[in-house]
Amino acid sequence: MRKKSVKSFTLLEVIIAISLVALAGPILFSVPFRLAKQEMTALYATELTRLAGLEWNSIRLQLLNHEIAWKDLAAAESRPFLIEERPYTVALSKQHQHRFTIKKAVTKAQKKTLSLNREGMLVEVNISFLSEAKEKEHSFEYQIAISCDAP
Fold first, then answer.
1. What is the DSSP letter of 133?
2. In Å, how far from its chain's centre is CA 94?
3. Is 97 contained in some domain?
4. d(CA 22, CA 92)
5. What pLDDT score was predicted for residue 24?
6. How many CB atoms lie within 10 A of CB 109?
7. What is the pLDDT of residue 142?
8. 65 within domain boundaries
9. What single string gives the DSSP state of each residue in 84-120?
10. What is the tally of structural domains in the chain?
11. Spans of the chain, pLDDT less than 70
């Protein structure tokens, strides 16, 4: 009977295989973590956009119902008028929470003649989220034309 010759790996082949895995490993493992970080950043940006829209709706209703004093808006022609500043926490999960300071301010107000020769103002509102780590400020600008007439 003939014996089968069993060919095993040489030491050099094993060393080359280990070095290839060692070189490719960090690259292969870093991609999913980088993608996860980019996804979390995109989720926070989307959540801040959604929250800014909710805050804008609240301010818009206050402006349309004349709950923000007209004299404060008139003063915003020369300097910004701070509506509110408060802490805010955005939580996507228990492990992923960011603390922000939300600032809502009227940055500009100009008297305008609206339709049917009614007096009014073009009001510009800025809603900004400043992270507690002060790494980046997310700012949103909105405009609305409001009438001087009471609702």
1. T
2. 19
3. yes
4. 35
5. 85
6. 22
7. 96
8. yes
9. EEEEEEEESSSS-EEEEEEEEEEEEEEEEE-GGG-EE
10. 1
11. 1-6, 150-151
